[in-house]
DNA sequence: AATCAATTTTACTTTGTAGAATAGAAATGG
DNA sequence: CCATTTCTATTCTACAAAGTAAAATTGATT
């Protein structure tokens, strides 16, 4: 059998955020997306650390874009999901679906 | 917003294996289930370490049962998913579904 | 130089993982 | 009957990878 090589749970979420955001994805928007969907506070450091790791594994790539006019601040680092990243996502999803299959958590809850 | 508190990816899988196995769940069967569904090799140490951690967080409980007759080996440690564990699973699932929503990975694949 | 937006760094905790060691029960053989 | 071997299962050890928060830094703009 192959070696285990599953996406970390946060990596998974970050990757999904990137796919969702498309062109709009850079550190700050990724964090926003994550906070919105999860309702939890996400530290920006956690986001960048994970982005760096995903890039290190060649699941995503990044490039710097010149700063937009009419905006303070430094230029943004934009991210793109690579084919390997999409594959990893698809695999994670398949495995989770396989494992969830046939499971109903509300099986024996009190009725009255 | 609340603090992040997401299941680790392997914790998630182990919890799902336990739910799936019900009464039959102990270290060795959990590992089997995981290997079957994932097609990957899972070390037994990884399984127990994770079970211990889940128990430490009160997401599951364990009890020892006397050894079955007609079977070599030592008595088994059986595991049960607690309500908090089911809740954690339900939450993970919801979040993932929310994040997957609207995403189609096959968007722009070459057709010919 | 003050301000703003964004990224990087630092330091640490928690999870994930493999492999060896140990333990309990039953079977075997003298 | 007792020592030893064999099974099955669990625990221990040691380290790598992922997750996280908070502070520091950078680059552009005013």
Structure, explained:
Two copies of one chain form a homodimer. By secondary structure, chain A is α+β, with helices and mostly antiparallel strands. The first copy, chain A, has one domain (9-67, 75-100): Arc Repressor Mutant, subunit A, CATH 1.10.10.10. Chain A has helices at 9-21, 27-38, 44-56, 83-100; strands at residues 2-3, 40-41, 60-65, 76-81. A two-stranded antiparallel ribbon of chain A has the order 3-4. In chain A, helix 1 crosses helix 3 (44-56). The longest helix of chain A has 18 residues, at 83-100. The first copy, chain A, is globular and about 55 Å long. Chain A starts with a strand and ends in a 12-residue tail after the last helix. The model of chain A has no long low-confidence stretch (mean pLDDT 90). At the A-B interface, strand 1, helix 1, helix 2, strand 2 and helix 4 of A face strand 1, helix 1, helix 2, strand 2 and helix 4 of B. Strand 2 of chain A pairs parallel with strand 1 of chain B. Chain B binds a DNA duplex (30 and 30 nucleotides) through helix 1 and helix 3.
């Amino acid at each position: 059998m192959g070696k285990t090589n599953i996406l970390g749970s946060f990596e998974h979420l970050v990757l999904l955020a990137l796919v969702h955001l498309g062109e709009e994805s850079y550190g700050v928007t990724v964090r926003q997306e994550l906070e919105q969907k999860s309702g939890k506070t996400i530290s920006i450091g956690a986001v960048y650390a994970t982005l760096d790791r995903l890039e290190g594994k060649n699941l995503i790539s990044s490039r710097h874009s010149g700063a937009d006019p009419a905006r303070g601040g430094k230029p943004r680092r934009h991210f793109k999901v690579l084919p390997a990243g999409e594959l990893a996502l698809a695999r994670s999803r398949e495995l989770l679906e396989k494992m969830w299959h046939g499971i109903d958590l509300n099986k024996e809850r009190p009725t009255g």
